[in-house]
Every structure is written in C-alpha cells, then in structure tokens.
Amino acid sequence: MNQQPMPGTTDKDEQEIRDLIARLADSWARGDAKAYGAEFTHDCDYVAFDGTRYRGPSEPSTHLARLFDTVLKNTRLEGEVESVRFLTPHVAVVHWTGSVAYPWQQKVRRRRQSRQTLMVVRRDGRWQATAFQNTRVRPLPQRGLGFALATRLIRWRAARARRARG
Asked: In the chain, at which residue ranges do the beta strands (DSSP E only) sit?
C-alpha cells in the first residue's frame, strides 16, 4: 500500500531529509562532532545507544567528540533510511537502520544493527533533527522452546502473585 503524500510536502522535502541523514553520516565518518551536532535543533532530545539522554546539540557534540577521539575513532555509519513519514508539512518521522562500522570492517554484522528514530522539523527553510532515539534491533523470538519457557515462567509468576495477594 502506497502512502499518500502529505499535502504541502514535495519529493524535494523528502530528498532534503535524506540529505540531512547523509550529512550526519558524513560528519560521523570525518569524526566531526561539531558538524554532527549542527544538524540538530537547539532544543533537541537525543537518546544515545546506551540510553543516555542529552538535551540540545552541544551535548551530543560534546559526548561524540570524546568518543570520536577514542572508541569511535575512524568509524563510519553504515545503513539506510527505511522510511520518511510526514506528520505535517514541517514535521516528519524518519527511521534509519544501520550501525557503526569500525575501520577494519567491510560490512556491519547483522547482530549489531540498530534502528534510529528521528523526528525532524523544518525551521527557517532548513530540515533539522529535534529528537533522536537509538535502539538495538533484537527482536524477541515468538516461537520455539525459549518462547514457550518464557511464557510458562511469566504465567507461573503471575499466578503465584495472584495467590499471594489472596
């Protein structure tokens, strides 16, 4: 099913948002935390891979600058934009899937994939990210022995709790 375009948006808007994501990846590959942070609004919410929440573009920049000088030195972001969904002509949700690739890696391992959700806004004719959430892609199995055991354990603990309450 094809989603109807949001009235007031154009293919150019979607391309500008995809360009924003490309600039984020490019500044990461250059180890340029300041340029990376400049793609965010002054009042952004940024939740990093470890669950740490930052406010404003200076926090992600400061955080990443330390990492770009140490454990993320010479890394790059590998991935793709999964979707751009306009909520209004000036607000869109972007899903990007990928991961950090280290210098010795040709390709990111599937088990290291993360999904980033970005809320982007158009302010003064420019698209910027105003919210960012990074989550590791680790779907829970919904069948098999592990699923069956987890289901039984949860049901047993729930029944035990009900009995304890009387």
From this structure: 40-47, 53-55, 76-88, 91-101, 114-123, 126-136
Give the count of alpha carbons within 13 A of 84, CB side only: 26
The tokens describing 6, both together, are 């949001």
d(CA 63, CA 110): 26
Element (H, E) at 27: helix 11-29
Which amino acid, one-letter code, is at 164? A
Q: Whole-structure pTM over 0.70, yes or no?
A: yes
Per-residue model confidence as pLDDT tens digits over 15-47? 999 999 999 999 999 999 999 999 999 999 999
Instruction: Name the pLDDT band for 2 (thresholds 50, 70, 90).
Output: very low
* Residues 11-140, CATH architecture: Roll (3.10)
Domain extents in the chain: 11-140
Alpha-carbon span 112 to 100, nearest angstrom: 8
Contacts of 63 (CB under 8 A, 6+ apart): 33, 48, 52, 54
CA dist 10 → 30, 81, 87 (Å): 31, 17, 13
